[in-house]
Amino acid sequence: MIKKLATLFILFGLLTVNAQQPGEDEMGAWYMYFGTNKVSERFSIHTEAQFRFYETTSNFNQMLLRTGLNYHINPNAIATAGYGYIDTDNTYFELEGEVNSKEHRIFEQFILKNKVWELLFEHRYRLEQRFLDFGETTETQHRARYRIQMTLPLTDTFFLNFYDELFINLQDDLFGQNRLYGAVGVHITENSSVQLGYLRNQFANAVYNRLQFGVFYNPDLRGLFKKKKP
Fold first, then answer.
1. Which one of 21, 29, 80, 188 has the fewest beta carbons within 10 angstroms of its own beta carbon?
2. 138-161 pLDDT, tens digit each
3. What tens digit of pLDDT does each residue of 48-85 get?
4. Mapped to the 3 state alphabet, what secondary structure does 14-49 carry?
5. What global pTM score does this model have?
6. Is residue 189 within 8 Å of residue 155, measured between CB atoms?
7. What is the DSSP letter of 220?
8. Would strands 138-153 and 101-116 be described as parallel, antiparallel, or unpaired?
9. d(Cα 86, Cα 28) in Å, to the nearest integer?
10. How many other CB atoms sit within 10 Å of the CB of residue 103?
11. Which of helix, strand or coil describes residue 59?
């Protein structure tokens, strides 16, 4: 187990040494909530809220609210269709000329899961149709995303989580961004956990460093939808 952990951290370190100029001097932060709310044997509702800051607790950057309907094909395959609303403040002092934007986003995704020894892998494929409003102008964009995530249980309570996600623009420049993430997680209850991690968000011309704090809560709501017996 120790050798495997050492190998994982070495690989993670090698992936992060490709340094570029940082997007800004401050360490930003993302505060996040994710929920998978099961409503039947095959269906669940995805709920999500993210609040992102250019600095750890100040200088607001973005609010993201997302929901979707999940269809559980089997325990290792999930198809989702959903909607997101994103309110972005682009007026950080080093981003001269940027304006605030609001976005309505439709997305379709497919998740596949598998296990190799103790490692839990998740492959997420997502398409997004983005309707952006910059105030005086509007724009429609399309992109594809692929995320490979790996979770390593340490004990019944603690685990490590890593992922790498590539964003591909389906217009203009092909490369959108790449997100590399590593975190320590704690299972609070059977259906809830928290993660504290670091995200390296790489764009074509800049890299942004972000602390992340995530809360995950996956309740089983099937009892609320069962018909009461007379």
1. 21
2. 999 999 999 999 999 999 999 999
3. 999 999 888 788 889 999 999 999 999 999 999 999 99
4. HHHCCCCCECCCCCEEEEEEEEEEECCCCEEEEEEE
5. 0.86
6. no
7. B
8. unpaired
9. 18
10. 19
11. coil
